[in-house]
Amino acid sequence: MKVLIFADAAKYGGTRSFLIKLINIHNKIGDDITLVVDKNDFDKELQELLIKFDFNLILNKPRSFIFRRNYFSLIFEAFTFLPIIFKVKPDLIISSTGSPGFNFFLFLLRQRPLVYFLHSTPEKFSFKSYLFYAIPKLFSSNNKFIVTVSKYLNSELTRLWCVPEKYTKIVYNSPHFNAPQSLKKEIKSHKKIILTVGHVVWYKNPKLWIEVAKKITQSYDDIEFLWIGEGDLLDQMKLECINYDRIKFLGARSDVQKYYSSSYLYFQPSIVESFGISVIEAQYFGLPSIVSDAGGLPETILNGQSGFVVSNNLEKYLKAFVNILNDKLLYQQMSNAAENNVKRKFTAAKQEENIMHIYNLITNGRK
Description:
Strand content: 15-25%
Largest sheet: 7 strands, parallel
Helix content: 40-55%
Oligomer: single chain
């Protein structure tokens, strides 16, 4: 089957890890893959993926600011996507995006089967944008499905875009690595690192993260807080922690697995979150997690068993940390439950099975 993938390939987060899994799945079943990504997103990791799987690659000119806006994005996509579609003649088109509203033009191609993977929360829209955001509602069908990464995101999709529920599906993401057991067991070391992995942006709540970190490090001499990731607030947050040697923003790192394996707890106090792939990856390494109740985060852990779900409040976060840090038995129970939670609910095999089920529905059993 010829598969054409229009993808966001942001260098970090669930969107990138999902794309890698998607290419793996289609290569495994012998599909003829054509991947379309922005030139700016094509990096060493994607180069290595291209060499490994030998798929067809098309590098697109990045959208200018004007073509990132509602109706103008349709113009960009019509002139950019149509020549590619006519050339490839795909049996199935896939869109994988973390930018709600991007690639809506693909819904207008009524005869082309489409799976639209959405990784971010749908936006509220003004009256002027009503017709634009009505596109998924009007053109979703038995051969056009929207797939989200959490129940929360799916409910927002039906609430804000009014897409009929029968044309929406949920596929949870899974860890994008397969660490050896020896690496996973490094968690048993005495070093107590509280880890966060993600973009340093407002909706990840770095200011409250710093408040919590300052309070906990004042009370515990063996605790260190580390945040891995880039973002527009990175430099500002580094300055706020300049006098605290056990609170660090490390920027982007290629060796994230090493940090998961050597950490003690995972912390994610997001204000907005569609799912939380880093929480799943942390639990894969047996890290109990303390997360906010925002968006899809409560779906990622077993509250009270593999971690705590907490409303975004300083005192409540501190209480959750104290509960785990002062109780070694509770910590060990949560560590085991975290690992088991991933094995039960968030495996790559389960993710692939769910994706293949959607393909079966949309292509009438051709796959």
